[in-house]
Amino acid sequence: MTSGFRFSNRSERALADLHPDLIRVARRALELTEVDFVVTEGRRSEARQRALVAAGASRTLRSRHLTGHAIDVAAWIDGGVRWDWPLYPRIAAAFKAAAAELGVAIRWGGDWPRFRDGPHFELDRAVYP
């Protein structure tokens, strides 16, 4: 069974420049999820990444976003973005199930021991250098 959710044009534009395996995972996750989500960011420029580090929103200049190997999403509830933490493990469950089904190695920022990042998913650097 699929969720019936669809990506908006904005989400589709954010997906466009990502690694094809990450796109496949995101599309399948949207079919599997209980919680609708939008793609807020895909590939980033170096200038954008530097600005995020300066603002404290990221801690690295080696972000997987720079190479199209990472995606940020936001829960979409009743026509708006929601940042409530309990929504993100539910979205992550769909991403992890999609990745397992497709044989794609991903990491979820919500599993990181420090600087947990619930909206962030990336292709595993060990498999996708």
Automatic annotation (TrEMBL):
Signal peptide coordinates: none
CDD domains: L-Ala-D-Glu_peptidase_like
Peptidase M15C domain span: 58-123
Organism for this UniProt entry: Marichromatium gracile (Chromatium gracile)
InterPro entries reported for this sequence: Peptidase_M15C, Zn_M74/Hedgehog-like
Gene3D superfamilies named in the record: 3.30.1380.10
Protein name according to UniProt: Peptidase M15
